[in-house]
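Chapter review: from sequence to fold.
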Amino acid sequence: DISGRPRRSGAQTTDLPELNIAGGNSSANLFSWEAAISYTVQELRRFAMAGFGIDSAKAMAGRKIFALNQEIIICTGDSDVGMTGIANNASVSSVTPTTGSWASASADEVYADLAKIVNAIFSDSKGVHVCNQILLPPSLFVIADTLRLPNTAITVLEFFKSKNPNVDVLPWPYLETAGASSVPRIVAGEMAPENAEALAPVVFESFAPQIVGTTYKVPMHQRLGGVVVRFPGAYRYMDGC
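The token string follows.
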């Protein structure tokens, strides 16, 4: 948190009011993820004859898999080592939905839940934080994007965006099981580096192929530390939709 307020200048120039920061502390450990791709000399020759580079294809597949792993870690961390992501930080408060399950909810009820989580961030922080992004599990995103307001062709999502033009609403697959007891979770917040930041000192690296017999093996590696949430008040969760 931050505290203090400047004083209007007057005759006195000493004993200035103190501006400060206050908060707790936590440690975020970094961990490595490793894997490898491999291909034989004969595979290189066989696929080269077919005009297909097996080595480059496997390298691209490996790069994509590491990118997906990074996204999972950014979302929910790794519980085996006590690492948390943006969707499961213990310091972020939850907002209880007014409606509950969207599967049988009306358009007005779905909109009410979206508005509630946005307003909670603004009101609880006394206007310091303003939500600029809502992340929805795809199952809930589809409902908001297809459910229409009564007697109109306007969907809930279209109506919400007309009322909140500065809030991006995006689907994120890994939120389908991010909530308590693996239920879908909505994440909303003021997405900015000063509020929360992913620790990813080594996003991806691959090393020179190592040949053992007639097989090439290419080690791959990344080093991540989850997400550091510096201002938990800038975010809210909502389960049960």
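Two observations follow directly from the output. The CA atoms of residues 91 and 130 lie 18 Å apart. The first helix runs from residue 41 to 49.
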